[in-house]
């Protein structure tokens, strides 16, 4: 099995941020505007996620379309988990942020204890891939809770949230480029892109009354889904060219 996770290039981060935006706006659209509710939306998205993850696990290498479909579905499910805890069970964002941070720490601890690495460059066994997707799920849930905590509970608003999380990501990038641990900085950036994408999605989709631009959840979701599709097509072309190059070099 070849490594199942793509290189963390600019295309990777662009799709990741847009996937988190779709997770925020898509979940809101289905639950609120379509009227499915949090529970039904969460159940439907969880079923789709399980199906996509089953296909992803059967692949023997990184395949862009199924990998990124799984990421988008994880984003929606992670958003729904946090929204269900907050809106249905009345759990505070402070508590859910702490709980998801601890859960993610446990996943990382078990992953490292089992495999002695948390690197995305070595996801070439099923066990490592399962640890990877568990970590991804909790990063989305944690990012959703932390983002809502910052923009709503602490009252920063969507615009300040976008600026603040962008600045934190820029700081992590700077630490990486001056010699910071690549695995640690990757996962820190991965966590922070979730609240950045969510804040950006809310900024675009929410009405002006609530501090947004007012594009609406449908327009925002369609816009970013279209961009994701185009970037995944580009990533697929790059992957196919890379595969042909490797095959040509082999004796």
TrEMBL record:
- Span-the-membrane segments of this chain are 29-53, 65-85, 91-110, 130-147, 153-177, 184-201, 213-235
Record's keyword annotation contains Transmembrane helix: yes
The keyword Transmembrane helix appears for this protein: yes
Keyword line? Membrane, Transmembrane, Transmembrane helix
What this protein is called in its record is Membrane-anchored protein
Q: Which organism is it from?
A: Paraburkholderia madseniana
